[in-house]
Amino acid sequence: MDEKVRFSVIVPVYNRIDEVRDLLESLSRQTLKNFEVVIVEDGSTDRCQAEAESVENLRVRYFYKENEGRSIARNYGMERAAGDYFIFFDSDCVIPEDYFAVLSRELDAKPVDCFGGPDSAHSSFTSTQKAINFAMTSFLTTGGIRGGKMSLEKFVPRTFNMGFSRRVYERVGGFREMFSEDIDMSTRIRNAGFSIALIRPAYVYHKRRVDFRKFLRQVYVFGMSRITLKLLYPGSLKVVHALPALAVIIGLVLVVLSAAVSPWFLLPLGLYLIAIFVSALVSTRSPVIAVKALPASVIQICGYGCGFLKAYFLKIVLGRGRDVEEEILMRKGK
Protein backbone atom coordinates (compact mmCIF):
# COMPACT_ATOMS: atom_id res chain seq x y z
CA MET A 1 0.00 0.00 0.00
CA ASP A 2 3.02 2.32 -0.24
CA GLU A 3 2.56 3.20 -3.92
CA LYS A 4 1.76 6.81 -4.75
CA VAL A 5 -1.86 7.50 -5.73
CA ARG A 6 -1.64 7.90 -9.49
CA PHE A 7 -5.23 6.93 -10.28
CA SER A 8 -8.49 7.75 -8.53
CA VAL A 9 -11.17 5.17 -9.30
CA ILE A 10 -14.57 6.87 -9.10
CA VAL A 11 -17.69 4.71 -8.85
CA PRO A 12 -21.22 6.13 -8.55
CA VAL A 13 -23.54 3.74 -6.72
CA TYR A 14 -27.31 3.48 -6.42
CA ASN A 15 -28.61 0.46 -4.47
CA ARG A 16 -25.97 -1.97 -5.73
CA ILE A 17 -24.43 -3.57 -2.63
CA ASP A 18 -23.67 -6.96 -4.19
CA GLU A 19 -22.10 -5.39 -7.26
CA VAL A 20 -19.94 -3.06 -5.18
CA ARG A 21 -18.75 -5.98 -3.08
CA ASP A 22 -17.58 -7.89 -6.18
CA LEU A 23 -15.98 -4.78 -7.69
CA LEU A 24 -14.03 -3.92 -4.55
CA GLU A 25 -12.92 -7.50 -4.07
CA SER A 26 -11.47 -7.52 -7.59
CA LEU A 27 -9.73 -4.19 -6.97
CA SER A 28 -8.20 -5.50 -3.73
CA ARG A 29 -6.42 -8.19 -5.77
CA GLN A 30 -4.63 -5.76 -8.11
CA THR A 31 -0.94 -6.50 -8.57
CA LEU A 32 -0.14 -2.77 -8.66
CA LYS A 33 -1.87 -0.61 -6.06
CA ASN A 34 -1.08 2.89 -7.23
CA PHE A 35 -4.74 3.94 -6.93
CA GLU A 36 -7.49 4.91 -4.53
CA VAL A 37 -11.20 4.09 -4.79
CA VAL A 38 -13.80 6.81 -4.34
CA ILE A 39 -17.29 5.40 -3.80
CA VAL A 40 -20.08 7.97 -4.18
CA GLU A 41 -23.40 6.66 -2.89
CA ASP A 42 -26.03 8.65 -4.78
CA GLY A 43 -28.96 8.64 -2.39
CA SER A 44 -29.23 4.85 -2.06
CA THR A 45 -31.76 3.44 0.38
CA ASP A 46 -29.62 0.29 0.64
CA ARG A 47 -26.20 1.69 1.43
CA CYS A 48 -22.87 -0.05 0.78
CA GLN A 49 -20.80 1.84 3.37
CA ALA A 50 -20.07 -1.28 5.43
CA GLU A 51 -18.81 -3.13 2.35
CA ALA A 52 -16.70 -0.16 1.27
CA GLU A 53 -15.05 0.24 4.65
CA SER A 54 -14.44 -3.44 5.33
CA VAL A 55 -12.25 -4.26 2.33
CA GLU A 56 -8.66 -4.93 3.30
CA ASN A 57 -5.55 -4.08 1.31
CA LEU A 58 -7.34 -1.27 -0.52
CA ARG A 59 -7.55 2.52 -0.18
CA VAL A 60 -11.28 3.28 -0.20
CA ARG A 61 -13.05 6.56 0.53
CA TYR A 62 -16.80 6.46 0.89
CA PHE A 63 -19.16 9.40 0.42
CA TYR A 64 -22.93 9.60 0.68
CA LYS A 65 -24.95 12.35 -0.99
CA GLU A 66 -28.57 13.00 -1.86
CA ASN A 67 -29.80 11.51 -5.10
CA GLU A 68 -29.02 13.74 -8.10
CA GLY A 69 -27.87 11.34 -10.79
CA ARG A 70 -24.81 9.33 -11.76
CA SER A 71 -23.05 12.16 -13.64
CA ILE A 72 -23.31 14.53 -10.70
CA ALA A 73 -22.08 11.70 -8.47
CA ARG A 74 -19.01 11.25 -10.68
CA ASN A 75 -18.34 14.99 -10.56
CA TYR A 76 -18.69 14.88 -6.78
CA GLY A 77 -16.04 12.15 -6.69
CA MET A 78 -13.64 14.04 -8.96
CA GLU A 79 -13.83 17.09 -6.73
CA ARG A 80 -12.53 14.95 -3.85
CA ALA A 81 -10.10 12.71 -5.74
CA ALA A 82 -6.33 12.79 -5.16
CA GLY A 83 -5.01 11.06 -8.28
CA ASP A 84 -3.43 12.47 -11.42
CA TYR A 85 -5.90 10.46 -13.47
CA PHE A 86 -9.58 9.75 -12.90
CA ILE A 87 -10.77 6.23 -13.75
CA PHE A 88 -14.46 5.39 -14.10
CA PHE A 89 -15.97 1.94 -13.68
CA ASP A 90 -19.60 0.95 -13.43
CA SER A 91 -20.56 -0.80 -10.22
CA ASP A 92 -21.37 -3.97 -12.19
CA CYS A 93 -17.77 -4.40 -13.37
CA VAL A 94 -15.12 -6.85 -12.19
CA ILE A 95 -11.51 -5.78 -12.81
CA PRO A 96 -8.73 -8.18 -13.92
CA GLU A 97 -5.95 -8.30 -11.34
CA ASP A 98 -3.31 -6.80 -13.68
CA TYR A 99 -5.49 -3.90 -14.89
CA PHE A 100 -3.50 -1.10 -13.26
CA ALA A 101 -0.18 -2.72 -14.04
CA VAL A 102 -1.19 -2.85 -17.71
CA LEU A 103 -2.62 0.67 -17.68
CA SER A 104 0.49 2.13 -16.03
CA ARG A 105 2.77 0.38 -18.51
CA GLU A 106 0.75 1.58 -21.52
CA LEU A 107 0.55 5.20 -20.30
CA ASP A 108 4.27 5.26 -19.51
CA ALA A 109 5.06 4.02 -23.02
CA LYS A 110 2.59 6.33 -24.78
CA PRO A 111 1.02 9.09 -22.66
CA VAL A 112 -2.50 10.11 -23.63
CA ASP A 113 -5.02 12.57 -22.18
CA CYS A 114 -8.12 10.38 -22.30
CA PHE A 115 -8.43 6.62 -22.73
CA GLY A 116 -10.72 3.67 -22.45
CA GLY A 117 -10.68 -0.07 -22.80
CA PRO A 118 -13.04 -2.80 -23.97
CA ASP A 119 -15.23 -5.04 -21.86
CA SER A 120 -15.56 -8.78 -21.77
CA ALA A 121 -17.53 -11.53 -20.06
CA HIS A 122 -16.01 -13.33 -17.09
CA SER A 123 -16.22 -17.13 -16.96
CA SER A 124 -18.45 -16.87 -13.87
CA PHE A 125 -21.13 -14.84 -15.66
CA THR A 126 -24.43 -16.45 -16.60
CA SER A 127 -25.04 -17.60 -20.16
CA THR A 128 -27.54 -14.76 -20.59
CA GLN A 129 -24.97 -12.18 -19.49
CA LYS A 130 -22.44 -13.66 -21.89
CA ALA A 131 -24.98 -13.58 -24.72
CA ILE A 132 -25.76 -9.94 -23.99
CA ASN A 133 -22.04 -9.17 -23.90
CA PHE A 134 -21.69 -10.73 -27.34
CA ALA A 135 -24.59 -8.65 -28.67
CA MET A 136 -23.02 -5.46 -27.34
CA THR A 137 -19.50 -6.10 -28.62
CA SER A 138 -19.82 -8.09 -31.86
CA PHE A 139 -18.97 -6.45 -35.17
CA LEU A 140 -22.15 -7.99 -36.58
CA THR A 141 -24.39 -6.15 -34.12
CA THR A 142 -22.67 -2.90 -33.11
CA GLY A 143 -19.99 -2.48 -35.75
CA GLY A 144 -17.27 -3.00 -33.13
CA ILE A 145 -17.60 0.59 -31.89
CA ARG A 146 -17.15 -0.40 -28.22
CA GLY A 147 -13.49 -1.35 -28.53
CA GLY A 148 -13.62 -4.23 -30.98
CA LYS A 149 -10.66 -5.20 -33.14
CA MET A 150 -12.73 -4.16 -36.17
CA SER A 151 -14.75 -0.95 -35.94
CA LEU A 152 -16.86 1.26 -38.18
CA GLU A 153 -16.29 4.34 -36.00
CA LYS A 154 -13.46 6.10 -34.17
CA PHE A 155 -13.21 4.75 -30.62
CA VAL A 156 -15.18 6.58 -27.92
CA PRO A 157 -14.49 5.65 -24.26
CA ARG A 158 -17.48 4.57 -22.15
CA THR A 159 -17.75 5.01 -18.40
CA PHE A 160 -17.72 1.28 -17.69
CA ASN A 161 -13.98 1.59 -18.45
CA MET A 162 -12.82 5.14 -19.02
CA GLY A 163 -10.16 7.51 -17.74
CA PHE A 164 -8.74 10.97 -18.27
CA SER A 165 -6.16 13.23 -16.68
CA ARG A 166 -6.80 15.87 -14.05
CA ARG A 167 -5.74 18.43 -16.66
CA VAL A 168 -8.65 17.34 -18.87
CA TYR A 169 -11.08 17.78 -15.99
CA GLU A 170 -9.74 21.23 -15.17
CA ARG A 171 -10.15 22.34 -18.79
CA VAL A 172 -13.34 20.55 -19.90
CA GLY A 173 -15.23 20.21 -16.63
CA GLY A 174 -17.33 17.31 -15.46
CA PHE A 175 -20.05 15.07 -16.84
CA ARG A 176 -23.49 16.35 -17.78
CA GLU A 177 -26.53 14.54 -16.40
CA MET A 178 -27.95 12.85 -19.50
CA PHE A 179 -28.07 9.49 -21.22
CA SER A 180 -24.82 8.68 -23.07
CA GLU A 181 -23.06 11.19 -20.83
CA ASP A 182 -19.81 9.35 -21.53
CA ILE A 183 -20.09 9.95 -25.28
CA ASP A 184 -20.91 13.59 -24.60
CA MET A 185 -17.86 13.86 -22.33
CA SER A 186 -15.58 12.15 -24.85
CA THR A 187 -16.80 14.49 -27.59
CA ARG A 188 -16.11 17.56 -25.47
CA ILE A 189 -12.65 16.21 -24.64
CA ARG A 190 -11.86 15.61 -28.32
CA ASN A 191 -13.24 19.02 -29.33
CA ALA A 192 -10.97 20.65 -26.71
CA GLY A 193 -7.95 19.23 -28.56
CA PHE A 194 -7.04 16.42 -26.16
CA SER A 195 -5.89 13.02 -27.39
CA ILE A 196 -8.10 9.94 -26.95
CA ALA A 197 -6.89 6.36 -27.27
CA LEU A 198 -8.13 2.80 -26.96
CA ILE A 199 -5.94 0.77 -24.60
CA ARG A 200 -7.14 -2.66 -25.61
CA PRO A 201 -5.15 -4.71 -23.03
CA ALA A 202 -6.81 -2.73 -20.20
CA TYR A 203 -10.17 -4.50 -20.35
CA VAL A 204 -12.79 -5.10 -17.68
CA TYR A 205 -15.40 -7.79 -17.08
CA HIS A 206 -18.83 -6.19 -17.42
CA LYS A 207 -21.87 -8.00 -16.03
CA ARG A 208 -24.36 -5.81 -17.92
CA ARG A 209 -28.09 -6.45 -17.57
CA VAL A 210 -29.10 -9.80 -16.08
CA ASP A 211 -32.20 -10.35 -18.23
CA PHE A 212 -33.48 -9.50 -21.69
CA ARG A 213 -36.25 -7.17 -20.47
CA LYS A 214 -33.79 -4.83 -18.74
CA PHE A 215 -31.45 -5.11 -21.71
CA LEU A 216 -34.24 -4.02 -24.07
CA ARG A 217 -34.96 -0.94 -21.99
CA GLN A 218 -31.26 -0.07 -21.89
CA VAL A 219 -30.62 -0.27 -25.64
CA TYR A 220 -33.91 1.51 -26.41
CA VAL A 221 -32.66 4.46 -24.38
CA PHE A 222 -29.27 4.29 -26.10
CA GLY A 223 -31.05 4.72 -29.43
CA MET A 224 -33.00 7.72 -28.16
CA SER A 225 -29.92 9.36 -26.70
CA ARG A 226 -28.05 9.13 -30.00
CA ILE A 227 -30.43 11.74 -31.41
CA THR A 228 -29.88 13.95 -28.36
CA LEU A 229 -26.15 13.77 -29.09
CA LYS A 230 -26.81 14.62 -32.74
CA LEU A 231 -28.65 17.79 -31.64
CA LEU A 232 -25.75 18.75 -29.33
CA TYR A 233 -23.07 17.89 -31.91
CA PRO A 234 -24.54 18.04 -35.45
CA GLY A 235 -21.56 16.31 -37.03
CA SER A 236 -21.45 13.43 -34.55
CA LEU A 237 -24.09 11.21 -36.17
CA LYS A 238 -22.41 8.62 -38.38
CA VAL A 239 -23.81 5.99 -40.71
CA VAL A 240 -22.97 3.23 -38.21
CA HIS A 241 -25.29 4.84 -35.64
CA ALA A 242 -28.25 4.68 -38.02
CA LEU A 243 -27.68 1.07 -39.13
CA PRO A 244 -29.93 -0.51 -36.45
CA ALA A 245 -32.79 1.83 -37.42
CA LEU A 246 -32.24 0.95 -41.07
CA ALA A 247 -32.21 -2.74 -40.13
CA VAL A 248 -35.58 -2.34 -38.36
CA ILE A 249 -37.12 -0.73 -41.44
CA ILE A 250 -35.67 -3.31 -43.83
CA GLY A 251 -36.74 -6.14 -41.52
CA LEU A 252 -40.32 -4.89 -41.40
CA VAL A 253 -40.40 -4.57 -45.19
CA LEU A 254 -39.08 -8.11 -45.61
CA VAL A 255 -41.63 -9.50 -43.15
CA VAL A 256 -44.48 -7.77 -45.02
CA LEU A 257 -43.17 -8.99 -48.39
CA SER A 258 -42.81 -12.52 -47.06
CA ALA A 259 -46.45 -12.53 -45.97
CA ALA A 260 -47.78 -10.85 -49.13
CA VAL A 261 -45.51 -12.27 -51.84
CA SER A 262 -43.18 -15.10 -50.84
CA PRO A 263 -41.56 -16.48 -47.67
CA TRP A 264 -38.24 -16.35 -49.55
CA PHE A 265 -38.04 -12.68 -48.61
CA LEU A 266 -37.14 -13.86 -45.11
CA LEU A 267 -33.96 -15.50 -46.43
CA PRO A 268 -31.69 -12.45 -45.76
CA LEU A 269 -32.90 -12.33 -42.15
CA GLY A 270 -32.30 -16.05 -41.78
CA LEU A 271 -28.78 -15.80 -43.17
CA TYR A 272 -27.99 -12.92 -40.83
CA LEU A 273 -29.17 -14.88 -37.80
CA ILE A 274 -27.11 -17.87 -38.91
CA ALA A 275 -24.04 -15.61 -39.16
CA ILE A 276 -24.68 -14.35 -35.61
CA PHE A 277 -25.07 -17.90 -34.29
CA VAL A 278 -21.85 -19.08 -35.96
CA SER A 279 -19.91 -16.03 -34.80
CA ALA A 280 -21.14 -16.43 -31.22
CA LEU A 281 -20.40 -20.16 -31.28
CA VAL A 282 -16.85 -19.58 -32.52
CA SER A 283 -16.12 -16.79 -30.04
CA THR A 284 -17.72 -18.37 -26.96
CA ARG A 285 -17.45 -22.08 -27.82
CA SER A 286 -20.83 -22.60 -26.19
CA PRO A 287 -23.97 -23.71 -28.09
CA VAL A 288 -26.12 -22.41 -25.22
CA ILE A 289 -24.62 -18.93 -25.41
CA ALA A 290 -24.79 -18.99 -29.21
CA VAL A 291 -28.52 -19.76 -29.06
CA LYS A 292 -29.13 -17.00 -26.52
CA ALA A 293 -27.07 -14.62 -28.62
CA LEU A 294 -29.85 -14.73 -31.22
CA PRO A 295 -32.57 -13.04 -29.11
CA ALA A 296 -29.94 -10.83 -27.47
CA SER A 297 -28.79 -9.56 -30.87
CA VAL A 298 -32.35 -9.04 -32.11
CA ILE A 299 -33.13 -7.08 -28.94
CA GLN A 300 -29.97 -5.02 -29.28
CA ILE A 301 -30.68 -4.05 -32.90
CA CYS A 302 -34.46 -3.63 -32.67
CA GLY A 303 -34.44 -1.90 -29.29
CA TYR A 304 -31.77 0.59 -30.32
CA GLY A 305 -33.30 1.04 -33.77
CA CYS A 306 -36.80 1.72 -32.42
CA GLY A 307 -35.49 4.21 -29.86
CA PHE A 308 -33.48 5.94 -32.60
CA LEU A 309 -36.48 6.16 -34.95
CA LYS A 310 -38.85 7.45 -32.28
CA ALA A 311 -36.39 10.10 -31.07
CA TYR A 312 -35.61 11.14 -34.66
CA PHE A 313 -39.30 11.66 -35.39
CA LEU A 314 -40.03 13.50 -32.12
CA LYS A 315 -36.89 15.62 -31.83
CA ILE A 316 -35.92 16.30 -35.43
CA VAL A 317 -39.10 15.95 -37.49
CA LEU A 318 -41.42 17.46 -34.87
CA GLY A 319 -38.73 19.59 -33.22
CA ARG A 320 -39.53 18.55 -29.66
CA GLY A 321 -36.96 18.61 -26.86
CA ARG A 322 -36.25 15.78 -24.45
CA ASP A 323 -39.22 13.43 -24.41
CA VAL A 324 -41.13 12.77 -21.19
CA GLU A 325 -40.52 9.05 -21.67
CA GLU A 326 -36.77 9.68 -21.84
CA GLU A 327 -36.91 11.53 -18.52
CA ILE A 328 -38.76 8.62 -16.90
CA LEU A 329 -36.39 6.01 -18.31
CA MET A 330 -33.41 8.05 -17.20
CA ARG A 331 -34.62 8.00 -13.59
CA LYS A 332 -35.32 4.27 -13.81
CA GLY A 333 -31.92 3.59 -15.34
CA LYS A 334 -29.98 4.19 -12.14
TrEMBL record:
InterPro entries per the UniProt record, alphabetical: Glyco_trans_2-like (IPR001173), Glycosyltransf_2 (IPR050834), Nucleotide-diphossugar_trans (IPR029044)
The keyword Cytoplasm is assigned to this record: no
Keywords recorded for this protein, A-Z: Membrane, Transferase, Transmembrane, Transmembrane helix
Glycosyltransferase 2-like domain: residues covered: 8-171
Pfam families, alphabetized: Glycos_transf_2
GO MF: transferase activity
Key word Ligase present: no
Residue spans crossing the bilayer: 239-257, 264-282, 294-313
The protein, known as: Glycosyl transferase family 2
Species name: Duncaniella muris
